[in-house]
Design a protein that fits this description.
alpha+beta, 16 helices, 35 strands, globular, disordered N terminus
């Protein structure tokens, strides 16, 4: 009664009670209004200075406040629950910010001390300066992670000029030997003639000289007269015929894998370190001036390369497929080639004026790019001039052009990714991990990387800058599902299985994450940086702070990374953060609590492992009837109980063409070959059930393929979960 009286008095004060009765606002609604809370805090810049005039709102609510001269704000009328705050920058000196972790708000509560930091940003005229200008001031350890060394981040060593990082050199022939590439039907491969761009000619892979100066070459035979076909006996690596075109491998792109020195240890004799850089393929690049047709075409069209950076044909007509069904596997059909293997890549059109590193690849494989283009008959937007600051991905790809920051050391003149909104933070990675084969917004459908000519004369020179721009304005139909595996790029950037949720290819993690509960839940907005450290190959983020604990490079294999957040709630309510800390230490990694190093007695570690095993086993039993399975999360061949094994099935693949053997094949229950898994982990974090795969089977198996059928969460380990797509 007293509660209702209080509500009635509040209604009178609010003017909603009128003579003769009440308005349509009921007493129950009024009671709810009486429970509205307040949130106060401060918005500051990266120097700790308060930001005046910033607009602070509550996501999904109408509560709004503006910061005063000290950056302070007070939100009133906040409905209770788990809420996120968003800060709209007051000027172009900052980027928008938000709380990535939800703020728990109780009815009628007063929440104090919410602090939100806004990243600075480069001005419109800021220019790229290159990583060498960063090394003078910043931590040496950071740059060791970006120097191209074996354990450095993949970003820093994806493209290597020369052949020092070539994988599987043993697959190439010895001098005076030969390797004859074949097409999917086993016939000798013929490819676009590099002499004049017309016709199809035979190609042989050859080597000359000894290491370390050995040359790796493609020998292209002259175009033959009509009716004449060369045979295996006719092809070799001799100096004859005189009309053969020899093109050396001038650089490699990709392929080093996720282990130590992958380019010297392709057979994994060194134990794999981490899952942060998958092994998939390596392409061989040629200098454009080494391709006679391109050299002549440029001269005929008055395109000079004088004073420019070296440009390349980004792939030659044969490349190395590293991962897939292993060679010699019993599941391979007759004539089917296993991995590692040489395979064809665009054999009919590899040598074209518009197929250059500068045009199709450099935005995601170089930093500080500027380009000039021109349309020619039959070819749109051919790059006529280009420049970059760093080959490979370095500091400014994520932090923005650094000239102003380098000149002044002002922290507000550079992008601080950790203070970006979840959307902007994910788009930072999504500029390259947002599409396998996207197309630019402007000019529409021309460039593979995100590009918009509208911004050509301002920050980024037309290329995306994280936090400053919206990625959807740089990709055509960004994040829209594309089910067509053909050339219909207009469907969208996200190449998917028919469910339009799980990706079929690589470099599309952001679209999967956007469709996951991690991106949209009531407790925390996860970003790529929550689980990954872009500066290193080490698994897990450099620092994951949860419940007073700080996990350094939290381990994937024993579930530390996942349980650090999921422990003490839901199906894992009986696991404590202390138990997870014990797992982290047991994996040989560091963990602190409130700044002090954590130590756990062996007996307590055993108890913690027992509690985790029981909780995970129960979760498997309830979710998938797996209670009787052994708990072996650290076994990559049978990772039972590993969170990612079930919640991140490898539904996609790294290679560019669709061939059954480029997936990991295994036998189904009927002894036929079927896809067990791909080699790109799903980032939707849901369970893909076998039923979702089975419905994709072609009713006419004579027209189907194994690769038509999506891998699922069970198919890696269980024959019953695999579905053959064809007759063998």
């Amino acid at each position: 009664m007293k509660r209702l009286l209080l509500v009635f008095m509040l209604l009178i004060l609010a003017g909603v009670v009128v003579a003769g009765g009440t308005s349509s606002v009921t007493l129950a609604q009024a009671a709810q209004r009486a429970g509205l809370a307040t949130i106060s805090g401060n918005v500051k810049d990266v120097k700790g200075v308060g930001v005046k005039g910033a607009t602070v709102t509550v996501e999904g609510q109408s509560a709004k406040a503006t910061t005063d001269s000290s950056g302070s704000f007070k939100l009133t009328g906040v409905a209770p629950g788990a809420v996120y705050l968003y800060v709209k920058t007051p000027s172009a000196a900052y980027l928008d910010g938000e709380t990535l972790k939800a703020i728990p708000v109780k009815g009628s509560a007063k929440v104090f001390g919410v602090a939100i930091t806004l990243s600075g940003r480069p001005g419109a005229k800021a220019a790229y300066v290159g990583m060498k200008n960063c090394t003078g001031c910043h931590d040496e350890k950071m740059f060791k992670s970006l120097d191209g060394a074996p354990h450095a981040a993949a970003h820093s060593r994806f493209v290597t000029e020369g052949t020092s990082h070539m994988v599987y050199k043993n697959k190439w022939p010895e001098p005076n030997g030969k390797y004859l590439p074949r097409d999917p039907k086993g016939k000798l491969l013929t490819v676009q003639d590099p002499l004049d761009g017309k016709g199809m000619v035979n190609v042989v892979l050859c080597t000359k000289g000894d290491e370390p100066g050995r040359e790796y070459l493609f020998k292209f035979y002259p175009d033959q007269k009509e009716g004449i076909s060369l045979t295996e006996v006719d092809l070799d690596c001799s100096d004859k015929p005189a009309g053969a075109v020899w093109i050396p491998v001038a650089a490699t792109i990709g392929g080093e894998g996720n282990w130590g020195e992958g380019y010297t240890d392709p057979n994994h004799k060194i134990a794999d370190r981490t899952p942060n850089f998958g092994e998939g393929k390596q392409r061989y690049m040629a200098r454009i001036q080494d391709v006679p047709y391109l050299n002549k075409w440029r001269k005929d069209n008055n395109i000079s390369r004088e004073g420019q950076k070296q440009d390349y044909v980004p792939f030659m007509p044969v490349y190395m497929v590293q991962d897939g069904t292993p060679e010699g596997s019993k599941v391979l059909a007759k004539g089917e080639v296993g991995a590692p293997m040489f395979w064809q890549k665009s054999p009919t059109d590899w040598a074209k004026p518009d197929n250059t590193l500068s045009r199709n690849c450099a935005a995601c494989h170089a930093t500080g790019l500027t380009i000039e283009t021109k349309d020619f008959p039959g070819f749109k937007a051919v790059v006529t001039s280009w420049d970059y600051k760093d080959l490979n991905i370095t500091c400014e790809s994520c932090h923005g052009p650094g000239s102003e920051h380098a000149k002044t050391s002002d922290k507000t003149k550079i992008i601080a990714p950790k203070y970006l909104t979840a959307k902007a933070g994910n788009e930072l990675c999504g500029q390259c991990h947002g599409s396998h084969d996207g197309k630019s917004e402007n000019p529409m459908g021309i460039f593979k990387p995100p590009y918009n000519a509208k911004y050509k004369d301002t920050l980024g020179h037309g290329f995306f800058v994280p936090g400053v721009y919206d990625l959807a304005t740089f990709y055509f139909n960004f994040d829209k599902a594309r089910v067509d595996r053909g050339s219909n790029w207009k469907e969208g950037t996200f190449m998917t299985w028919p469910d339009q949720t799980h990706g079929t290819a690589h470099s599309m993690e952001i679209s999967e994450l956007n469709r996951s509960v991690h991106a949209n839940n009531s407790s925390e907005k996860l970003t790529c940086a929550t689980c990954h450290d872009s500066h290193t190959l080490d698994a897990g983020p450099a620092s994951l702070k949860v419940g007073g604990y700080d996990f350094a490079n939290a381990a994937y294999g024993n579930n530390t990374l996942c349980l650090a957040c999921h422990a003490a709630s839901g199906p894992f309510k009986n696991i404590s953060k202390t138990d997870v800390a014990a797992l982290q230490l047991d994996a040989g990694r560091k963990v602190t609590k409130d700044g002090a190093a954590v130590t756990v007695k062996p007996a307590d570690t055993a108890l913690a492992r027992n509690r985790v095993a029981r909780a995970v086993a129960k979760h498997m039993q309830v979710g998938a009837g797996m209670g009787g399975a052994l708990y072996t999360p650290d076994d990559p061949k049978m990772p039972v109980g590993n969170c990612t094994a079930c919640h991140m099935p490898k539904t996609g693949k790294l290679q560019d063409v669709s061939v059954d053997a480029e997936y990991h094949l295994d036998f189904d229950m009927n002894g036929k070959s079927a896809v067990a898994e791909g080699n790109v982990a799903s980032h939707v974090f849901d369970i893909v059930w076998p039923g979702q795969s089975a419905i994709l089977k072609n009713p006419d198996p004579s027209k189907g393929h194994d690769y038509d059928i999506m891998p699922n969460s069970c198919s890696k380990c269980h024959a019953f979960a695999r579905t053959s797509g064809d007759l063998d």
